[in-house]
Amino acid sequence: MQTALLLEDHEITRQWLSEMITEAFGDIEVVCASTLEAGRLALKENHFNLALIDISLPDGNGIDLIREITRHSPETYCVVATIYDDDDHLFSALQAGAQGYLVKEQAKEQLLIRLKGILNGDPPLSPAIARRVLRHFRARQEVSPSVSLSERETEVLTLIAKGYSRGEIADLLGITKNTAAAYIKNTYQKLNVSTRAEAALQAVRLGLVDTDI
Asked: What is the pTM of this model?
């Protein structure tokens, strides 16, 4: 069974987010926590496929937990669910390893669409957040030289943006996992990104994949 960690300190919000996760993913076990300490304890006791994490918590910052998950459980898909839509929180979360960023103050139907999109390899980004990130990359492009990717690196980036794992990329391209890892590392370095979400957005900017934001 798939498992999800939901870190949210407000009880009512925690309840409807839990219901939304179940509606989006079906047969999934949701473990809820209301503090950073409780989230860390849950991570010691369970392996999670998904972590939906608030930023502002009674005992700390959820972004710190994202860094810990990225370091110790990189296969866990981390998504921020917050009221903050400013650049400081957004890019701090992405740099920490978040693969999605959802603003809670939007229609339930929109949140559901973003969560369900994870199953198709779509980075779960609220529309306003996606536009903000794309503007950020466009601004960086204006002051930076164009990135030159090799044909293989372009293929790898396209597959990353479509949600394929390192092992799946290796199988699809007929290369070893170590070789795939090397291509991914080189591609990330050339793009100056550190997470799958950032790489996917770069792929959109480069016209390699389409996205509906």
From this structure: 0.64
